[in-house]
Specification:
The complex is a heterodimer of chains A (about 350) and B (about 300).
Chain A (H helix, E strand, L loop, with lengths): L11 H10 L6 H4 L1 E2 L6 E2 L1 H6 L15 H8 L6 E3 L17 H12 L5 E8 L2 E8 L10 H17 L3 E7 L7 H20 L4 E10 H4 L8 E4 L5 E2 L3 H8 L10 H6 L5 E2 L5 H12 L10 H9 L1 H11 L3 H9 L15
Parallel strand pairs in A: 5-6, 6-7, 7-8, 7-9, 8-10
Antiparallel strand pairs in A: 1-2, 3-4, 4-5
Chain B lengths: L1 H14 L5 H6 L1 H8 L7 H8 L2 E5 L11 E8 L2 E8 L5 H6 L7 H17 L2 E8 L6 H5 L2 H14 L4 E10 H5 L6 E5 L3 E3 L3 H8 L6 H8 L3 H7 L4 E3 L10 H20 L3 H13 L24
Parallel strand pairs in B: 3-4, 4-5, 5-6, 5-7, 6-8
Antiparallel strand pairs in B: 1-2, 2-3
Helix pairs in contact in B: 4-13, 6-8, 10-11
The chains are: A alpha/beta (about 350), B alpha/beta (about 300).
């Protein structure tokens, strides 16, 4: 297998040839080339190893649902559920092209059956059920199949007492299924309550983009909500807002970093640290088997885990609290503008 | 006034409308316009006619009061009922003040506040849906438009009291569904219920704002179709020519449906009601039959009896 350094320029065509020869999924080759943000070059192989994050500037590229499963769980160690479900065309919908044609094309180009993949997996030794959306399948839009698979994932997780991890990447409800697509918002929100009844947590990861009916349904109902850097998170996208209200929007409108400031997400997490972060929070929230009332057992486990684990956890904390503590210490020089927002 | 002229034209059109999907498709565009006719009765018009007394509540207790959504308690057939709905404006001033019936997060939070009170006091909840969509604005996004809608959906699903949603005009996007998760969903004959407004769909799918008519025909957002898909439970007839020709009669017909449905629901134990509510929404959304083609596996074919 060729290992191409990032400073060596290899033509995209050549990379495509290589990717094909190795029998990789066809879409990987689209990522090979140049980062649109910082213009640095990279190889398909390097890109995959770096979880589709630009090694130079940290720009987060789109990830397919199955690759995301591999990133979150152990490689190849997930069991996909209900992959046989397919969309129907209740409206006999045609816009520029018939909906049936669009589905067939999406199936062909992505090698997937729908815009969501559900699976059982382990994230850093924490067993969980994951529902991961794929933007490359019709913009990750939510139709009846996405709604049904999501609802089944909720029921399945609740039944097994496992936490649910949701990774959203969607433009919203699937227009081509009309009013019935709108109903999936209700269906998914209602399904989530099975987890509340089973007293297991829901972790949501908002990937780029999470908009419309998906943001206005299950994606905004996580118990813990992470967002990937630069992800657009909004009910109405910037274009719609500018057209409707003639507002001039800031460059970072609706982006993960802005939504963190707005209090809409708990943290912005780099994809390369995502699995570790999810595993950690699931560990913190996990209850001893068969009992929810007692907290003694996990506390003991934590103590037995030793100082190393605590050290790791502290390391993983964002630097902000420490900075703030420094500033609060008596005698510290307050050189920074007090009105400045901590980044 | 051009509105008057429009009214005359619609009267002619709707006279020939019969309540079958095919007949509705024929003059679908006229119906879409009828659903947002300038003289169509709005939420408060119905509330004032249905209730002997109504106390509107204001404010979400977090940020402000959203005039695009009204909520409060009314005396309906000598029982207390919570009424919640988007409110449009009649003249330019009122339209601006009501933000064209496009509620922000504060509106949905006010709705949730009233729902919570109703649930605690054992009062049935009736929502009246009439909106082109939730407000698309930077300020609304900053204050959590998405989360406000999803939580409103969640709250409606969790209520122990009987709930009825009525689509009285335009029901577009998540802004409509935010008030739409109920035990029974009724829909006025000339109203629309869809994932997006025809104009929005036209801009997104056809990349051309002038294809709204085409979009409407593709979405088929009429009452008869929504009934056929199982999205609504009953179609409420309107007076000849549309609700705006006789708002009083329109409210009377709605009253008949509403009181019957509320009585029926009141007789069901809360746990059964919630289970049925869950099943009702869980069923929606046909999947491809692995044996057959791309068609719809389930669905009702005929509209409800008058």
């Amino acid at each position: 297998m060729s290992r191409v350094g990032r400073n060596i320029h290899v033509s995209v065509d050549r990379l495509r040839q290589l990717a094909q020869r190795e029998g990789r999924p066809r879409r990987i080759k689209a990522d090979a080339g140049t980062c649109p943000k910082c213009d640095s070059h990279y190889s398909a192989d390097e890109m995959q190893r770096n979880m589709r994050v630009c090694p130079a500037c940290g720009h987060h590229f789109a990830v397919t649902a199955r690759e995301r499963m591999e990133q979150l769980g152990e490689p190849g160690g997930y069991v996909e559920l209900w992959s046989e479900l397919r969309a129907s065309d209740p409206l006999q919908f045609t816009d520029l092209k018939p909906y049936t044609e669009r589905i067939v094309e999406a199936e062909k180009s992505t090698g997937m059956g729908e815009a969501i993949v559900c699976a059982e997996l382990e994230v850093r030794h924490q067993p969980a059920v994951a529902a991961v959306m794929d933007f490359s399948f019709m913009g990750g839009s939510m139709g009846a199949v996405v709604g049904e698979k999501f609802a089944r994932a909720c029921d399945y997780a609740a039944q097994k007492g496992l936490p649910l991890i949701i990774v959203s990447a969607s433009g919203g409800a699937r227009m081509q299924e009309g009013t019935l697509a709108l109903m999936q918002m209700a269906k998914t929100v209602i399904a989530l309550d099975a987890l509340a009844e089973a007293r297991v947590p829901v972790v949501v990861v908002l990937a780029h983009p999470t908009t419309g009916g998906v943001w206005a349904s299950f994606a905004s109902l996580g118990d813990v909500t992470y967002a990937e850097p630069g992800a657009l998170i909004a009910f109405s996208g910037p274009r719609v807002i500018e057209e409707t209200t003639r507002e001039v929007l800031p460059d970072d409108f609706g982006r993960a970093e802005a939504q963190l400031r707005n209090g809409q997400v708990d943290a912005v997490v780099d994809r390369r640290e995502l699995a570790q972060r999810i595993g950690r929070v699931l560990h913190i929230l996990s209850r001893p088997p068969g009992d929810g009332a007692s907290t003694a057992a996990p506390a003991l486990q934590w103590a037995q885990g030793g100082a190393q684990k605590v050290g790791e956890a502290v390391q993983a904390l964002p630097s902000l609290p420490r900075k703030m503590m420094d500033r609060m210490r008596p005698g510290s020089t307050d050189g920074e503008d007090p009105g400045e927002t901590p980044a | 006034m051009s509105d008057r002229k429009q009214g005359g034209r619609f009267r002619k059109v709707t006279n020939k409308v019969r309540r079958t999907p095919e007949a509705q498709d024929e003059d679908l565009w006229e119906r879409v316009q009828l659903a947002r006719h300038a003289e169509r009765p709005y939420t408060l018009d119905y509330i004032n006619r249905l209730c002997s007394d109504f106390e509107e509540l204001h404010g979400d207790r977090y940020f402000s009061d959203d005039a695009a959504l009204v909520a409060g308690f009314g005396r309906y057939h000598d029982t207390p009922v919570a009424f919640i709905g988007q409110q449009k404006g009649r003249d330019t001033n009122e339209r601006t003040c009501r933000n064209f019936g496009m509620a922000g997060p504060e509106g949905y939070r006010k709705a949730m506040r009233v729902m919570e009170i109703a649930n605690r006091l054992g009062i049935s909840v009736v929502t009246l849906i009439d909106t082109p969509g939730a407000f698309p604005g930077a300020s609304a996004e900053e204050r959590g438009q998405g989360g406000a809608i999803s939580r409103s959906i969640q709250m409606m699903w969790r209520l122990d009291v009987p709930t009825v949603a009525v689509i009285i005009g335009e029901g577009s996007s998540g802004g409509a569904l935010g008030l739409g998760v109920a035990d029974r969903v009724l829909m006025l004959e000339n109203s629309t219920y869809s994932v997006i407004s025809p104009e929005g769909a036209s801009a997104i799918l056809w990349r051309d704002a002038s294809k709204a008519k085409l979009a409407a025909q593709a979405f088929k957002p009429t009452a008869a179709n929504c009934y056929r898909w199982g999205v609504v439970d009953a179609v409420v007839p309107e007076p000849e020519g549309g609700a705006h020709t006789d708002p009083g009669q329109a409210a009377e017909i709605l009253d008949q449906y509403l009181s019957r449905v509320l009585t029926e629901l009141g007789a069901v134990p809360p746990a059964d009601r919630r289970r049925a509510r869950r099943e009702r929404f869980r069923r929606l959304g046909p999947l491809r039959d692995p044996e057959g083609g791309m068609g719809m596996a389930t669905g009702r074919e005929t509209p409800p009896p008058g």
